[in-house]
Amino acid sequence: MTTDEDPGSQAQFFVQAGPAYRLEALLGLHVPTTSRRGLKVVALLLLTWVPLIVLSWIAGHAFPGSVEVPFLRDPETNGRLLVALPLLEFAFVIVHISLAVQARSFVDLELIPARQRLDFVAAKAAAIRLRESYLGEGLLLFLAYAAAIGTRLFLDVGTGDSSWERVGKSLTPAGWWHMLVSLPFLYFLILRWAWVIVCWGGFLFQISRLDLQLTSTHPDRAGGLGFLAWGVAAFAPLLTAMSAVVAAGLADGMYHQGLLLKDLKYDVFGYVAVVILIVYAPLLSFLPALSRCRFKGLLDIGKLVWDHDRAFEKKWLEEGADHRQDLVGSP
User: Fold this and answer.
1) Could you tell me the pTM of the whole model?
2) What's the pLDDT tens digit per position in 125-136?
3) What is residue 163's three-state secondary structure?
4) How far apart (Å, rounded) are the C-alpha atoms in residues 203 and 19?
5) Helix (H/G/I), strand (E/B), else coil: 69
6) CA pair distance 138, 162, nearest whole angstrom
7) Alpha helix (H) ranges present in the chain?
8) Count of Cβ atoms closer than 10 Å to residue 309 Cβ
């Protein structure tokens, strides 16, 4: 449990938490070692990608010839399962360390006044409870299945009318596995990452409402909160995974629908704008505190400069100043 003495010690629970994580612990896949992470990625691929290639091969839809879009020529599915899915898993390693360091830095750098230390602990505990919620992850799982089944079964989303996934209007065995297992796994991981960002953003929002001891002259030019901006870099593996998901969809449009890159420029620009907004949005809650810190700093430094100038003028320029003989040789 988190204690007052170490309020940042359990910050990794923003990532390594929730019912899904407890299931991983039950299966022995929760240990954050390279070998165990690799084993988990292999298990995910055995569950999501391998059955698709096997079922497609049995049905004769894996290689060119029988259908217009065989499985091995589907960049969207292969890119998302073979590239994005492992990256979504490996991102946990970096992000959980980064969030732990950032949470601990609020205390280590003495940004939290002693009288509000318990408020800090309470804010983090509330965010962890939200992250640990069975209802929260249950809703994510429901949304993942709703998106997979809705797009494939009711909206007839697929790769053309003749593909490994569907022949005409009918789903193939591989298509059914894709809809009921592979896609929900991918969507759930994406939604779980979104949930982590929401919980972390809520925690930062609560912290921003405390009486933070910011310093206007801090060299990070952010009042002492520069470590939060540096921490954004830890989301790079996650953003790479999300970019792989989007890029796989765009590649499918270029490869099978004849679209050109210039036709997709607005999709690319829109994706970049949305990603930047999502990653930096949690930091916007500190704008009021930083604005107050800057305004107070300008007033304090302005008064200091005024006092200095008045003392200089009184010593050297006012009538009757008796230090003029010291001008010779004075720096």
Assistant:
1) 0.80
2) 888 888 888 888
3) strand
4) 20
5) strand
6) 35
7) 19-26, 34-48, 50-59, 75-79, 85-108, 117-131, 134-149, 173-177, 183-208, 226-231, 236-256, 265-280, 287-316
8) 10
